[in-house]
């Protein structure tokens, strides 16, 4: 049973890192559940501080992931139409057959949203789309970095408790 939980936890963390890139999957919560799986192994002392701190950062980064692209759009001169367009474009782009369609979806969604708001000002719409794209990249980088940090914590826990299994 221990090995099943070890493999499940590791797979959840790797799946969470992949989910950090794909906008429709809750990557960081999946990775955090991988850490929790580790503590269900019999004989592992539970470190509630580690679980609490990682849960806190998982929640904060997950919330920021929704705020950063919208703020990027707003900072580059976008309106609510551009912010909504960014979010809609992320979701639609995820389901398109184009590779990495979610990246282009954020850009195109903000651009189209701004054009709906004011079809005369294409330069502002383009700047807002650039802001949405920059915000999307910043949020994705933050999630992937934290997912890799959770993987490092998992490996550290594995090495720390090595003697239990062998």
Automatic annotation (TrEMBL):
Domain of life: Bacteria
UniProt KW keywords: Membrane, Transmembrane, Transmembrane helix
Pfam families (UniProt xref): DUF456 (PF04306)
InterPro entries: DUF456 (IPR007403)
Keyword Glycosyltransferase set for record: no
Membrane-spanning intervals of the chain: 48-68, 88-112, 132-159
Protein name: DUF456 domain-containing protein
């Amino acid at each position: 049973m221990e090995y099943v939980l070890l493999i499940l936890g590791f797979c959840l963390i790797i799946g969470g890192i992949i989910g950090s890139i794909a906008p429709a999957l809750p990557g960081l919560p999946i990775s955090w559940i991988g850490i929790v799986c580790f503590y269900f192994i019999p004989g592992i002392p539970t470190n509630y501080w580690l679980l609490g701190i990682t849960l806190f950062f998982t929640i904060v980064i997950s919330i920021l992931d929704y705020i950063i692209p919208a703020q990027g759009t707003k900072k580059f001169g976008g309106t609510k139409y551009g912010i909504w367009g960014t979010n809609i474009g992320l979701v639609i782009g995820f389901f398109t057959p184009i590779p990495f369609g979610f990246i282009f979806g954020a850009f195109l969604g903000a651009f189209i949203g701004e054009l709906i708001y004011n079809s005369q000002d294409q330069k502002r719409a383009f700047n807002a789309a650039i802001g949405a794209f920059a915000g999307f990249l910043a949020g994705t980088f933050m999630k992937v970095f934290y997912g890799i940090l959770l993987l490092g914590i998992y490996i550290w826990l594995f090495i720390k408790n090595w003697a239990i299994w062998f």
